[in-house]
Amino acid sequence: MGFVLGSDGRSCKRPKNELFLFYGKGRPGIIRGMDLNSKVADEYMIPIENLVNPRALDFHAETNYIYFADTTSFLIGRQKIDGTERETILKDDSSNKIPVITQGKRRCLSA
Which domain of life does the UniProt lineage start with (predicted)? Predict the structure, then answer.
C-alpha cells in the first residue's frame, strides 16, 4: 500500500503495518495519510494535491483508491495511495450538488 523513504534517501520501502489514517485539509487543499503504528510521522501515501477544499473521503481497500470530493471545485475524484491513476470522476461547474455512492463489492459509482 504505502511507502516510506529508505535510509539512502532515494529508494522506497513498504511499511510493516497497514493501519493508517488519511485526512484532508483546505487552503491549500491536500489529502495526506499517516501510519498509526509508527512513532515517526512518516507519510503513508503520496499526498493528493491541487485541491481547494476536500471534504468527503473514502478508501476502497481492495483497489487501493482514495475517493474524495472537493466541495469548492464541485468535483469528485480518486487516486491510488501510491500516487498513480488520479482521475476526475465527476466535475460539475454549477452549484448543483450531485450525490455519489460508491459500492465496494460491485466497484461501481451511481449518481
Answer: Eukaryota
Domain extent for 71: 4-110
Q: Residues 68, 80: contact at Cβ < 8 Å?
A: no
Q: What is the pLDDT of residue 40?
A: 67
Q: Provide the domain count of the chain.
A: 1
What sign does the dihedral 110-1-87-25 (CA atoms) show? positive
CB 12 within 8 A of CB 56: no
Reported as type and span, the H/E element at residue 78 is: strand 75-80
Looking up residue 85, the CATH number of its domain turns out to be 2.120.10.30
Grid cell, residue 6, equals 529508505
Residue 2 contacts residue 35 (beta carbons within 8 Å): yes
